[in-house]
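Fig. S4 source data, part A: sequence.
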Amino acid sequence: MLSWTFVAAAAILCLLPPGIPARLRTWLLAAGSLGAVVLIWHAPLLPLLGLTLGTYALGRLLPRLAPERRRWLQGIAIAAVVGVLLATRVRGVAVIGLSYLALKVIQHLVDAGDGRTAAVDLPSLVCTIFFFPTFAAGPIERTTQFARELERTDRGLGDRLRGLDRIVIGIGKKFLLADPLLAYAHPIFQEPTIVAPAVLLSAVYAFAFGLYLDFAGYSDLAIGVARAAGVVVPENFDSPYLARNIGLLWQRWHMSLTTWLRDYVFISATRRMLRWTRNPLASQVSGQMITMVLCGLWHGLGWNFALWGAYNGAGLGALAVWRHRRGPAPSGTPVRDVLATLATFHFFAFGLILFACDLPLARQVVNRLLGFLG
């Protein structure tokens, strides 16, 4: 992600003068981001631009249709977007940023059908989808929220300078911490049967922290570049490893993705399950499982990613059942909070074995660790 072309594009973006009108700034950001995405990541401009223009046209059309026709057209369009994403994954075609673009397009179509996108004009939509600081790794902007952000008066030079702090922090997380930790963990996971179990356990911890710092570092970098250009994008991580249960951890992990999944998958899935089961708890647990399996498959088409999602879905479901039977957790003592935080972290960290390894390797890693810990 961080190349000389990225640095040059970021520098040009940050040099846009604070005093220019919001409308002109939106056009400049949209055009500049399109050019940067093509130059930096060699994105197929015409197909992606065609998808964006089609999304804009559908967004204008959907609110005018009768409800039944709107639902059909909306469903066909969303299925087409998902189909394109799946086709590229199955064929092994690497289109950087396509997964994030797909989520933005789906969100816009759903919100358009509900009449919430009237204020999103074409340059705002293009800028939202192609905004190059966040194009490759998030955070995921909502088109309606980002359009409002683009209309705001530039916060000025003083506020922009705060973005430089986030850029430095992001670079530090990524290159000084995440890369060495992941470089340590990956070779160990490839040969789990020939390394000492204690070394294998250290790789689990290294991967857990390295993955978090990698994602969070990219997010800090994107947030910092956007801030230095006078644009505020949503936060993406909020100390997830300090959470006291798996539900809180997921509320703090990749927040722009998890809130997207909550709003556009979990709520819909839970409502449908409730109509079938008439059982709120069963509907919630089913909705959590569906959402997390889809979250896993969004990260990669493989059984390991599907099981990683199901593992976390099972954790969230167990928490929901526990709360249903025992009621809200009482205020904890410091010792209890620390133990809960450690248990939550270890549950999540050991699940990441499925994220790091395919199923045969994951099985070897788990068997080796169980023999060591047992």
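Fig. S4 source data, part B ends here. The chain has three domains: 4-151, 157-228, 240-373.
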